[in-house]
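Batch manifest, entry 17 of 40.
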Amino acid sequence: MPSEQRQRGLKRMSEVYGFDLPNLTDDPFFEVTVDHLFGDIWNRPGLSMRDRRLLLLGAIVAQGHSEIAEIQVGAALRNGELDADQLREIAVFLAHYVGWPAATKLDGVIRKTLAKDKKK
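Output type: structure tokens
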């Protein structure tokens, strides 16, 4: 049986990503990610899931990780944290702070994710 911290981390990780993840054992990186990042950091008081998602999107876009942004945009839509108009506005806003190329990638990710959503 996983520890209370592992259970809390797996639950939050599932909420963040919008799908269940397996409980990997004997994987130090996974253990730190689940137990500390999702078990502790994502469960701290003071910020909502939406607040954390907005911060995460800004950080990801600033670092140029559009492949990770795709996961986060999809999860934000599935979880009802952000809608299509808000996501588009985030791309416009971030263009002025992280640069047009990075925001253009995010805009492409948003368009792609919204198109996939319409097909469902």
